[in-house]
Predict the structure.
Amino acid sequence: MLSKHYDQLSTYRKSSATLTEPVTILADQFEATKIGFTVTQDKETKISWDFDSLKTTVQTIYAFALTDENSTLKRCEHCKGFYIANSSKEKYCGSACRNRHNVMKSRERMKNEDSHIE
Ligand SMILES: [Zn+2]
């Protein structure tokens, strides 16, 4: 569901300049029945969240990451998983995915070169 949501959001983000009114992406898909929190004071003021399920927890973290302008939530170009990027140029969730993707690209290049020879 998050994957589908992110794909739709990406499409709307690309055309955001032409949107005439706000668009709700996958309306009614986030259905938490309870999100509670407590605020405690020690040396610092802290908030503790209380979610009804792991699913709600993941969805809420996802929503905060999407809407935080300092967040760099991205999708890996190889495994399509979500990750927090260290820079806007990063394309892969880690070195394993980057290496696998480069191997695939070089194998494709070799295949194309072979077919030109024949
Ligand atoms: Zn990956």
Observations:
- The chain has a mean pLDDT of 89.
